[in-house]
Design brief:
alpha/beta; Rossmann fold; 7 helices; 5 strands; globular
Length: 140
Amino acid sequence: MKILIDTNIVLDVLLRRTDFFDASYNVLKLATLGKVEALVTANSITDIYYILYRANKDIVKSKDAIVQLLSLVGIADVLASDIMTALSSKVTDFENALVGAIAKRAKADYIVTRNTKDFENSPVPAIDPQDFLLQLGSGQ
């Protein structure tokens, strides 16, 4: 199974967001164990780095966190065709429309995100991390 992991899931883990950490961590753990193929979008990497650096003010720590992340997940690049698809998408938020377009091109089965409502009209279904874990029988 292939999943595209939304930025908020990665940040839940890297910033240890108490309310969301466990489920998000366990989704990433599935990738570590080889139970899913996990991707993040190339543009998410820049957002993740920016938010990490703002939180810790440490370039080395921020870069190390990205390197560790990339040892667990692949990068889904952003193509011009994805941008054009996103511009004509029924998903109203452009960034989320772009995630949906990339997920479709990458043939992802799901977009794992806490913001499932933002992906209502996405060409790839969005699923909450806890629901995803339950569906796989890996719920906590």
